[in-house]
Amino acid sequence: MVFSTKPGFLQPPALAIFPKAVNWRPGKEPCMSKETIEIKDVTVKSLRKHADDRGWLFELYREDELPEAVHPVMAYISQTLPGIVRGPHEHHDQTDYFAFIGPSDFELTLWDARSDSPTFRTKSKNVFGASNPCAITIPPGVVHAYKNIGDQPGWVFNGPNRLYAGRGKQDPVDEIRHELDESSPYRIETDIHNAA
Fold first, then answer.
1. Has residue 2 been placed in a domain?
2. Structural domain boundaries, residue 104
3. What is the pTM (predicted TM-score) of this model?
4. How many domains in the chain?
């Protein structure tokens, strides 16, 4: 690890991403630009890994970089095993703020189900995680699912702007679970059934 004499400057070693980053190669752009997800109100932010001989750190979000309406009010991290799909589901009122950092890769599929949106019925499929660490803001009405496409368990952080089941977990859960509906147009092909 190389430290500069400039305050706050840290130069990570080459290929300090993850030992098993599947698609990373020198010169690859970090995280796709938000223009590549063609669904209105979905945002993508590249996450920078700060690494040294002690380990690493990702800054997941900053209050001064997010609109107040989507500030997280709770946070959780989930582990997803290889080949497993979470979703597809959507929310009526909640905005999700996912951070995909690894140590695996995920294929994120989005469908715009908002009939008043200019991108209504648009479908997007992108890879995020160890090879492309990013944070994605997904607004209400955008159906989302992600699949661990790597060969090891992967972690996903979520900082939604609503409390799960409301204060004291006393309210109905804000979720439409398309994975439970065999006739849903929002499906992910998988050999492993994951509906809980």
1. no
2. 32-163
3. 0.80
4. 1
CATH number at residue 41: 2.60.120.10
| Residue written as token pair 């991403």 | 17
In angstroms, the CA 56 to CA 88 distance is 31
> Does residue 137 contact residue 96 with C-beta atoms inside 8 Å?
yes
Would you say 158 and 89 are in contact if contact means Cβ atoms under 8 Å apart? no
Residue 8 is classified by DSSP as T
Q: Distance between CA atoms of 149 and 172, rounded to whole angstroms?
A: 32
**In a domain? residue 183:** no
Dihedral pair phi/psi, residue 157, rounded to 5°: -95, 140
| Domain membership flag for residue 175 | no
Q: What token pair was written down for 164?
A: 């799960």
Q: Is residue 158 part of a domain?
A: yes
Q: Is 166 left (phi over 0), alpha (psi -120 to 50) or beta?
A: left
Are 146 and 107 within 8 A, CB to CB?
Answer: yes
- Tens of pLDDT along the chain (196 residues) come to 333 333 443 333 332 332 322 233 333 455 554 446 889 999 999 999 999 999 999 999 899 999 999 999 999 999 999 999 999 999 999 999 999 999 999 999 999 999 999 999 999 999 999 999 999 999 999 999 999 999 999 999 999 999 999 999 999 999 999 998 889 999 887 655 555 5
CA distance 95 to 71: 9
Yes or no: say if 34 and 43 are a contact pair by the CB < 8 Å rule: yes
